[in-house]
Every structure is written in C-alpha cells, then in structure tokens.
Amino acid sequence: MSPAAAKNSKSRTFDPDTFLATIGKGRRILAVPKKQTIYAQGDEAEAVFYIQKGRVRLTVVLSPADYSLGSPESRAIARAWADAKNPRNSEDRQRDDDALLLYSMAFELHGRTHPDWSTFSATSIAATGKELRDNICGPIVPLHEDPTYSRRTDASGEFQHCFDREPRAGDLLRWEHVRTMRPGNAGERAFAPN
Asked: Rounded to an integer, what distance in angstroms lies between the CA atom of residue 180 and that of residue 182?
C-alpha cells in the first residue's frame, strides 16, 4: 500500500455514531419498548439492526427435527430441551448419575468387600440409586412371585408365540399352528431306520 493510500484510509475510518446520526434512504432510528419482538426466527431477514442504547435479548429456537434422526446435534438439542423443562444443576445431575452407577454395581458387594451389601444398602445414595433405577426400569419382581412365570410351560410359550396372547382355559394348540409359525421342521426329529 502506498503512503498516500495509507493516509487516505486513516482519514476515512468508519464512525458508527456519524453513520447512524445521518438518516438516509433505508435507515431509520426506532425506539422499541421493552419485551417487544423486533425480529422472529423464520421471518424474512431484510434489515440490519444497530443497537444504540439498551439491550436486546436474542433467542434461537432449534428443534431436534432440524437435524437427522440420531445425529449428535439432534440429541444435544433434545437434552437441552429436557434440561430446560426439568432444570437441575450439574452437581445434582452428577450425584444422581453416581447413585445410579453405584446401585447398578451393588451386586458385586458381598462379604469379602468393604462396604458389603448390608452396609451399602443402609446409605442414602443406595436409596437414591434404587429410586432412580425403579423410575427407569420399574420394580424388580422376583421370578417366583411373577404370576405369568408360575404357569409358564413350553406349550403355553408356543401358544403365546403363535397367537400373541397367553392361553386361557379351553384354548387348543395344535401341531399345525406351531408348524406354520416355526419354519422348517421345528421340534421334529428324523429317525432313520436301522
């Protein structure tokens, strides 16, 4: 750059106050009341705003649907929405994650470890972990107390596979039902003569 051009560029610096003070074609000075929308997402962008005095609150609304399903962006937006609906600080969230992790590892606590199960189960973190696991998975029902398991037989399992429901008194399960639902020779054994 020549010395004359450098001197000329210094004298022509942009002054926003001068620019905004001279109202020309396409420039207006607006006094906007508090909490009034000056631009909404999705509107046609046909203006440039210079804020001379005060503040403007900028809110960008994104949807997980704006991105492909399962992408990191859509998952991050979904997490942000969930956090906005159920605000908790990161310390509470970390404590819950730790409680859930410790409760899920509790099956490894036995008489040879310290703390063992009886010591751990009496703590508040174990109670929190159990509550969180029950909220996610539902309560654990021991197998011997499960009413559907006590009447489970191979035949009732095949019936449920064929008809998508548990058998009731009087229902019949024929070999033809099983053969049509199970491809090939399911359950049949071929005997070759000696």
From this structure: 6
